[in-house]
């Protein structure tokens, strides 16, 4: 069964070379940064798929390619069976585009300060000539704000309320898929809980599908039906939250879970992980994680592991399933 | 009893504005002993960074300390002249800020920045300063420290830069370290490295630390004692196991419960309704009462009981341990 979203062999390479003239004078080669490398996954309708990874792992780049803000270098993104990269019929593209919306990280930067809330929220509909009578008021109530708020400006709202406005705007065109790029990272915990609960409720009410991008494992564990772990642009493991957190199959996943601070762990003495994410313009050979991996052997240096089924999920590791959580008590 | 390294007595900070005086820090008292890490948590606007800045005398005008005392090893430092304060800052109080890139001078090598700080505060020769700088970098876990002395900040990754900033804060061997969101800009695996480093350094040097953060997980793993702030006031202070495990102030309780980690496996997160009030519009009585699930009449008029220097108290008329039956 293919899902609402089907991503195959998605790759994105950025040219990060110095300017042409510098390259000629200093005789430098071109420098290419592979932000996303051969990533494939499906998102079934009405589920939440979460992408986690550290900075530079390519999670936001994937999000941007899914909504069409960036073109993939290779591979394709199919939404509802239609590949937005190769599709040329404008009518079909337009129809699919109304099905996708995005919520960004910073609610202060993603709302136009000179527009009234009503105009901001209804823009996805009014831009296509749709009927916007009472739409803003209806959506504001749905996201827990008041109808009167439609006449206000964004600066009159707090961070959490602004993120609610972003959610309302994303709902306006009645999308099927919402890509959320770190939607609560800029919010305080008590407000984060409000926004996450709101997003769960709306998912039920509207039958939404989320692609949820976050660096916060605890948030992802709470929200996701399936979690994909990214390392250096590669999908290293995919599993349900329960199996991922209880029995991570990839050593990087285990390292992330061990490193994440826990509430019940005061005075916990765990050896912190070693090393940092390598330079993406010059990734290690074979498995990208091998220089930091406790299980690495010769094959890891030579051969890039493929994403293969492991239990109910998938994992890309030559020694899948051999890791143990350090903090497990 | 030995003198605590840092003691705040009824510290109050005021910001006069055209629309009246705002009070971002209101009557806060606590102490930190040598070798102890005090975690200060709260949401944005709770006054935690303001408290840190008041201690090191870096309040931006027109904010100023309008009442109370700051004592460093028993000596008052809140009334010092600017020049005297400069001698304390860096020497006796080290500071680590959130963003490691903006805390370093991009035009100087890290060796120059470290030796400059050492030469300013300690009476040593240039060669000795360099040797100390290398030792400092070694101690915070920078590999081949000697060769990295000539490197510029941009040549380091975020985690390595934060290590350099910590080395810089510690190079004059301060007795108190103030770390304001030291790991917020870092990835989880690097964050674990930095918090482990801070813990080790405090233990080895017997240094007191004030760790300001909004991340409950970091606090739970790093701090010995925790102070919870709300709307400029101290809501609760106590040992970390108690604050996390058996909070008594309803705000602490809500804060802990709303972190996704605490409610793993539950369909919904527990949420605190509403948001923190703006400083200009603080409600009467206990600042938390409009959001409190256990609010009673007394809370609407009487600000909560004061939390004094003595430990283990919650600024709440009806702390949770006294009303088990209500919940």
Helices and strands in order, then pairings?
The complex is a heterodimer of chains A (329) and B (327).
Chain A: E1 5-15, H1 20-26, E2 32-43, E3 48-52, H2 59-67, E4 74-79, E5 82-83, H3 90-98, E6 100-103, H4 117-126, H5 135-142, H6 159-172, E7 177-181, H7 189-206, E8 209-214, H8 217-223, E9 226-231, E10 234-239, H9 241-246, H10 251-259, H11 298-302, E11 308-310, E12 313-315
Parallel strand pairs in A: 3-8, 3-9, 6-7, 7-8
Antiparallel strand pairs in A: 1-2, 1-4, 4-5, 9-10, 10-12, 11-12
Chain B: E1 6-17, E2 20-32, E3 37-41, H1 48-55, E4 64-72, E5 75-76, H2 82-88, E6 93-96, H3 110-121, H4 126-139, H5 145-148, H6 158-170, E7 176-180, H7 188-205, E8 208-212, H8 216-222, E9 225-230, E10 233-239, H9 240-245, H10 250-258, H11 297-301, E11 313-314
Parallel strand pairs in B: 3-8, 3-9, 6-7, 7-8
Antiparallel strand pairs in B: 1-2, 1-4, 4-5, 9-10, 10-11
Helix pairs in contact in B: 3-4, 4-6, 6-7
Would you mind describing this structure in some detail?
The complex is a heterodimer of chains A (329) and B (327). Chain A is of the alpha/beta class. Chain A has a domain at 5-99 and 175-261 and 275-315: P-loop containing nucleotide triphosphate hydrolases (Rossmann fold), CATH 3.40.50. Chain A has eleven helices and twelve strands. Chain A has helices at residues 20-26, 59-67, 90-98, 117-126, 135-142, 159-172, 189-206, 217-223, 241-246, 251-259, 298-302, and strands at residues 5-15, 32-43, 48-52, 74-79, 82-83, 100-103, 177-181, 209-214, 226-231, 234-239, 308-310, 313-315. In chain A, the strands form two sheets. Chain A has an eight-stranded mixed β-sheet with strand order 6-7-8-3-9-10-12-11, sandwiched between helices. A four-stranded antiparallel β-sheet of chain A has the order 2-1-4-5, covered by helices on one side. In chain A, helix 6 runs parallel beside helix 7 (189-206). The longest helix of chain A has 18 residues, at 189-206. Chain A starts with a strand and ends in a 14-residue tail after the last strand. Chain B has 327 residues and is α/β, with parallel strands linked by helices. Chain B has a domain at 6-92 and 174-261 and 270-322: 3-Layer(aba) Sandwich (Rossmann fold). In chain B, 31% of the residues lie in helices and 21% in strands. Chain B has eleven helices and eleven strands. In chain B, helix 3 packs across helix 4. The longest helix of chain B has 18 residues, at 188-205. Chain B is globular. The relative contact order of chain B is 0.14.
